[in-house]
Specification:
The chain has 321 residues and is mainly alpha-helical. It has a domain of 222 residues. It has 14 helices and two strands, in the order H-H-H-H-H-H-E-H-H-H-H-E-H-H-H-H. It has a two-stranded antiparallel ribbon with strand order 1-2. Helix 4 packs antiparallel against helix 10. The longest helix has 27 residues. The protein is globular.
Length: 321
């Protein structure tokens, strides 16, 4: 019964969210679209960090790869954006698997440092002369505003919001089915006790790269959506600051929870909006100070993140009832 009520609640929430394009201004829709994009990215981070226990400091690289993959398809090959985004996700899935195989034996801080190096290197690769004609180099790559497909009577901002909402719903559904089944139990077992998990027949060489691949896929889809919504990509948008933001957003939202991706996305939107609004006065060091303060408050008062707090409050309400 509780599961049925939860599904009904989720359905009503999605239905209410789908009404936003007809009630909000284009600027508000752009901000809401960013929240949905960050939620998909944090979903990817949570698959790896929360459910598999591998700390990533370089998921901004997969976000950038998805953004560039979608932008290049749209700008150079005329691929429709609603096709380019899933293709970018598939490319990031392959990239995550390829990166996961050689780093299979790394764990803890060693794996974190490997992903940190990936996040540092990728922006430099995007501006390299050998790929400059595709990526636009340091100046970046601008995209023409895509047309709304299928002749729908919507503005681009309305369509982009609904398209991103659909991508989020599909991503959440896929993640819930994946993590709630055999694969999810396997990667959680590898997180909790790798030795016992392998002794019981769970193949770490299969599930750990798979977790990274799926994680990179979701984050790459978010990057492709971001490139389409912003209509611009450049190396400066994907620095290590973004990777730290994703990790901190996932922790504040709630590790190893799907709902935590939404809460963390709201936090990131607030932070990035504050950075954009005060770009002249707010320095990078001050941004990390804000991150640090937020993390301290979460550790002290909400160890399970916002999602954990919501769960505890709901459980207390049920007990009192």
């Amino acid at each position: 019964m509780r599961s049925s009520w939860r599904r009904l609640g989720v359905g009503l929430l999605v239905g209410a969210a789908a009404c936003a394009p007809f009630l909000a201004s284009d600027y508000q829709l752009f901000r809401l679209t960013n929240v949905l994009i960050y939620a998909i990215a944090l979903l990817g981070v949570n698959v790896l960090v929360g459910y598999n226990g591998q700390i990533s400091l370089g998921h901004g690289a997969f976000y950038a790869l998805g953004a560039y993959a979608a932008a290049i398809q749209i700008a150079h090959f005329g691929v429709p954006h609603w096709v380019a985004v899933p293709v970018a996700g598939a490319l990031c899935l392959a990239a995550g698997l390829c990166f996961g195989l050689p780093t299979l034996r790394l764990s803890g801080m060693h794996f974190a440092m490997a992903t940190f190096a990936l996040g540092i290197v990728f922006p430099g690769l995007a501006r390299h002369k050998s790929v400059e004609r595709w990526t636009g180099g340091t100046q970046g790559l601008e995209l023409d505003r895509p047309e709304v497909p299928f002749g729908l009577a919507l503005s681009f901002d309305q369509w982009m919001y609904l398209f991103t909402l659909l991508a989020l719903v599909v991503s959440m559904t896929l993640a819930a089915n994946l993590l709630g089944g055999r694969v999810g139990r396997a990667i959680v077992a590898l997180r909790d006790d790798p030795v016992a998990a392998e002794a019981s027949g769970i193949h770490a060489g299969l599930y750990k790269p798979a977790a990274l691949g799926v994680s990179a896929m979701f984050t790459g889809i978010a990057g492709g959506l971001a490139a389409t919504a912003l209509q611009y990509v450049a190396p400066g948008l994907f620095g290590i600051f973004l990777s730290f933001g994703f990790l901190i957003g996932a922790m504040i939202g709630g590790i190893a929870t799907l709902a935590g991706a939404l809460y963390g996305a709201l936090f990131l939107q607030l932070i990035f909006a504050a950075v954009g609004a005060t770009a002249r006065s707010l320095q990078t060091g001050q941004v990390f100070t804000l991150y640090g303060i937020a993390l301290i408050l979460v550790v002290l008062f909400m160890p399970g993140g916002v999602a954990g707090l919501v769960t505890r409050l709901a459980a207390r309400r049920r007990r009192e009832a």
